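Exercise 7. Predict the joint structure of the components listed below.
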Amino acid sequence: MGKQAMGNIAYNQLRRMDTLLYLLVYPQKPLLTTKTIELVGYDKLGAGQNATVAVMSYSGYDIEDAIVMNKASLDRGFGRSIYMKRFNDGIKTYDEKNQVVIKEDIIARPDRDGQNFGKMRVLDNDGIASPGEVVRPKDILLNRQVPNTSGGYKPAPLTYKGPEGESYVVDKVSLYSDTRNKLQCKFLVRHTRRPEVGDKFSSRHGQKGVCGTIVQQEDLPFSERSICPDLIMNPHGFPSRMTVGKMIELLGSKAGVSCGRFHYGSAFGEPSGHADKVEAITDTLVKMGFSYDGKDFLYSGITGCPLQAYIFMGPIYYQRLKHMVIDKMHARGTGPRIQLTRQPTEGKSRNGGLRIGEMERDCLIGYGASMLAYERLMLASDPFEIHVCRECGLLGYYDHKRKSGICTKCKIGDHMATMKLPYACKLLIQELQSMNIVPRLKLANA
Amino acid sequence: MSSAASNPRPQPPQPKQEETRYVCGGDLLFVSYNTRCCGEEVSLRPGDKIECSACNYPVLFKKRTRRIVEFQAR
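Solution:
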């Protein structure tokens, strides 16, 4: 439906080889549509599921648009999705000048006795992983080897990278020739995902929210007809956003399921139009034995006592959005650094650190947590020991023969002092020097 | 360079190898329903052209693994 919603993307979705593909396992048609949606064919490819939503507060894990989900619904397949990712690799050729023979990669047969066999578990005799195999991070998908200068080969395999502890499956492997007639491979790796805490959901009215907690069905409220919500949404989402359409959708869908007819939810109830007006929907609801306002009498699942208020409950078409925690979750202790500044790298893909930015730094300063600021901004980042001349204030170096610091300008080591400083600061000083600006360090308490 | 020059298509030392079978991807091509579907099984040796021997379709798919795979139902 929307850009980020999971669902069916095309009728041939399982035959395609997309770089990234998000599919819903059990997509549904919305109970409440509009004539336009039907005419355009928007509902031909499902992009969500009709979830029974109870608009109420529950447990405190539903504040700030978070959603409480029913564990039994998830077990039955609500929001279950398929994630597919493609890996490409193949034989590359290397032409060098003055050489008759063009060197090229080989796809080697896996070394069954070698120490790396664990990683080559999924490979066939042709050195290519076969479909149906379960892959773990660092497993080799394509056993490629690169020619080196001495006529031998050096391993350069295509490895699978993904989250630890999850079972991804090789779904499809296709082979084709590139323009140079060399073998190229595409690997489609599949993962089935059920919703977890932190996954993002949305109704069609822009009411997005993450899953705050997953609750056993036994603990969820239920109506006198034993209807139990699939998810619980906090009513605070309504007043400021004024999504009246969502409430009408709930009413219309509720009338739709109970009388067995898809309803139209257009805003215009003019006589020539097709829209089911709220009045008509209300009549249907009453006819089917519900309250006219869509509110139900619910019992608490925890105490078994009736709830104090009637709860606005009914089906709403919910979409699962493609932002999932498993793709975003990241933490780092120590790890790679950038060569130039010696500071930690940035971003999840580079196993990067989490930045204490300017505003966070302001907070530390404002609070007076100087040791914490010192630790985060220097010790945990790029500490560096320099030798400074107290006379001229320029940077010197440590002479290992004389076992003392030496100032490059004064040529003597009498007034040298050592101090710690971020490497980036030392870099700045030297870069300024290269531009004919001389920063001098004045040491007060050396 | 010297060893590579004597052998135009460099191959690693290969013990007797059972051939891996591939399936023609021609059934994925919906040009028209008449030219659809081949499904021919092809066996390739290293260095062969990637092509279906029956219909010359240039994409091949690997057959599913014959090992027993256990899936975890969650």
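Discussion. The longest helix of chain A spans residues 244-259.
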